[in-house]
């Protein structure tokens, strides 16, 4: 029988405590874990497939499962086909890189009832630095989402149409038309994540007063959630005008999602490098996206929906060029965008 020593694990000290409570902190921590209204689980990172080893009553109440139906299982039993594979890819990347992550994901109770779960995952390392456990907390965001949707609807009715909305709506229209509609749930999830990618770019533009945004900042914004430690970035300080920031953001999002689901970032040793430079005669910019370690090229050369969207954004929206080349152990994508105002500074 395998046992795990607790001598190599010492919990974080309380931020505030009396001498008496500090002496009893282990017992108090156990009481707090069980009695808190926030659903919590702990998984064993030393065992295959990260099985659950601790779950509190709030987690059982939220999901509807009994204790013997939870312990020993990976948390993916809460997922169903409509769960976004993009959110799953983000969680897998954080586990592989042993870092904190917060992500909103559609999960399901034992009864089959869906709920929106704001999941926070955090690694627990031993004194020797080795990963021992993952701690996960959940917040049921279903009611909040419903209220938020109602408030957003009312707000949209009261707002005047922004003078920049034409460009954004044209991109959204492309997303709706080009996304794979074979499965209604996955179609909705794909559109949601793509619109969120646009929203991140929109928020960045709003924070900067709709001024020019650097290529590097935009790349980090869209790619870091999927490749925090396995991506190398290189290029001069090229600024993108507001009119091209959102379509370029969507292009980067599609490339990152594809790499996380099917490409180099889906492999344990896969790596990604992104380089950019001024375009011909310093007009616009060129971007080189290279994945290594994703394995041999696929047998089918049919363009996926992500590739279709990237091609449409680059060639139609940005009036640029897009070229995709399969390598022996990876993928090379080269993009050139002629954009007025996109020049090195």
UniProtKB/TrEMBL annotation:
It catalyses: ATP + protein L-histidine = ADP + protein N-phospho-L-histidine. It is an enzyme of class 2 (transferase). InterPro entries: HATPase_C_sf, PAC, PAS, PAS-assoc_C, PAS-like_dom_sf, Sig_transdc_His_kinase_HWE. CDD domains: PAS (cd00130). Residues 99-153 form the PAC domain. GO terms for molecular function: ATP binding; photoreceptor activity; protein histidine kinase activity. PROSITE patterns: PAC, PAS. Keywords: ATP-binding, Chromophore, Flavoprotein, FMN, Kinase, Nucleotide-binding, Phosphoprotein, Photoreceptor protein, Plasmid, Receptor, Repeat, Sensory transduction, Transferase, Virulence. Its EC number is 2.7.13.3. The keyword Plastid does not apply. Residues 25-74 form the PAS domain. This is Blue-light-activated histidine kinase. It comes from Rhizobium leguminosarum bv. trifolii (strain WSM2304).
């Amino acid at each position: 029988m395998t046992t795990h020593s607790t001598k190599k694990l010492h919990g974080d000290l309380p931020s505030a405590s009396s001498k008496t409570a500090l002496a009893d902190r282990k017992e108090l921590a156990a009481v707090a874990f069980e009695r808190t209204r926030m659903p919590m689980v702990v998984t064993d990172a030393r065992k295959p497939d990260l099985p659950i080893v601790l779950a509190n009553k709030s987690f059982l109440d939220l999901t509807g499962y009994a204790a013997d139906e939870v312990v020993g299982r990976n948390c993916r039993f809460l997922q169903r086909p409509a769960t976004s594979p993009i959110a799953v890819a983000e969680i897998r990347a954080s586990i592989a890189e042993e870092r904190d992550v917060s992500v909103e994901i559609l999960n399901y109770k034992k009864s089959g009832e869906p709920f929106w779960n704001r999941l926070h995952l955090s690694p627990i390392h031993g004194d020797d630095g080795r990963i021992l456990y993952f701690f996960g907390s959940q917040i049921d965001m279903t009611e909040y989402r419903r209220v938020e949707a109602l408030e957003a609807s009312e707000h949209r009715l009261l707002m005047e149409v922004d003078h920049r909305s034409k460009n954004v709506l044209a991109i959204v229209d492309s997303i709706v038309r080009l996304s794979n509609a074979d499965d209604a749930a996955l179609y909705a999830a794909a559109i949601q994540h793509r619109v969120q990618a646009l929203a991140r770019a929109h928020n960045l533009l709003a924070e900067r007063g709709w001024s020019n945004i650097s290529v590097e900042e935009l790349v980090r914004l869209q790619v870091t959630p999927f490749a925090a430690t396995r991506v190398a970035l290189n290029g001069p300080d090229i600024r993108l005008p507001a009119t091209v920031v959102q379509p370029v953001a969507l292009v980067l999002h599609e490339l990152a999602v594809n790499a996380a689901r099917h490409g180099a970032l889906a492999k344990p040793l896969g790596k990604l490098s992104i380089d950019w430079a001024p375009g011909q005669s310093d007009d616009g910019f060129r971007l080189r996206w290279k994945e290594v370690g994703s394995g041999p090229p696929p047998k089918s050369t049919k363009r996926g929906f992500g590739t279709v969207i990237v091609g449409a954004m680059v060639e139609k929206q940005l009036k640029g060029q897009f070229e995709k080349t399969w390598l022996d152990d990876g993928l090379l994508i080269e993009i050139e965008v002629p954009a007025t105002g996109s020049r090195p500074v």
